[in-house]
Design brief:
The protein is of the alpha/beta class. The chain folds into two domains: about 90 residues, Leucine Dehydrogenase, chain A, domain 1 (Rossmann fold); about 55 residues, NAD(P)-binding Rossmann-like Domain (Rossmann fold, 3-Layer(aba) Sandwich), CATH 3.40.50.720. It has seven helices and five strands, in the order αβαβαβαααβαβ. β1, α2 and β2 form a beta-alpha-beta unit. α6 runs parallel beside α7. The radius of gyration is 18 Å and the shape is globular.
């Protein structure tokens, strides 16, 4: 019998769990997590994604900051903003929402984000640490899929999994996570 997976319920459960952790941090006088997002231009899908991230932060008790730039922002200006956020001790995590304009190097922007603030998991240090099964930030979609597999106790060991696509954001990290020798994972993976 197939397992019915309810992503919306799981997402809601995770937000509740995070909110409880934040309440505990507050009660103990700890620092409230602070997420910054940079949005360049006015891509509809990006606007929606970032709007939900800001809403999610509010819902779980995080602080959030949204920095907006026009499509005409220079690479130098954007890198300067990333550096300013890197050096801001109040900000714990940074998302630079993709896509960004073609005149700006995604790789330069990704490489400029401090690995410990790279909550998207795109920095080469985080990708390398993920590959070695070390603590790291992991791209959101693959991490979410792994959460669903684990929370629904779907057996993966010894299975043959097929990942369609090999993007740096979803396909490649998904294949790496599924092939690790721990649960969830321990699969033979075909891309």
């Amino acid at each position: 019998m197939a397992t019915r997976i309810d992503g919306k319920k799981t997402s809601s459960d995770i937000r509740i769990e995070i909110a409880e952790k934040v309440k505990s941090i507050k009660a103990q006088g700890g620092k409230i997590p602070h997420l910054a997002a940079i949005l360049v231009g006015n891509d509809g899908a990006s606007e929606t994604y970032v709007k939900y991230k800001v809403k999610d932060c509010e819902q779980v008790g995080f602080k959030s900051t949204l920095k907006r730039f026009d499509n005409t922002v220079s690479e130098e200006e954007l890198l300067h903003e990333v550096e300013a956020i890197n050096n801001d001790p109040d900000i714990d995590g940074l998302i630079v929402q993709l896509p960004i304009p073609d005149h700006i190097s995604v790789q330069k922007v990704t490489d400029r984000i401090k690995p410990e603030k790279d909550v998207d998991g795109f920095h080469p240090v985080n990708v390398g640490r993920m590959t070695k099964s070390l603590p790291s930030y992991i791209s959101a979609t693959p991490y979410g899929i792994m959460q669903l597999i684990e929370r629904y106790k779907i057996e993966t060991s010894g299975k043959h999994c097929v990942v369609i696509g090999r993007s740096d954001i979803v396909g490649t990290p998904m294949s790496i996570l599924l092939s690790r020798k721990s649960y969830p994972g321990n699969c033979t993976v075909t891309i």
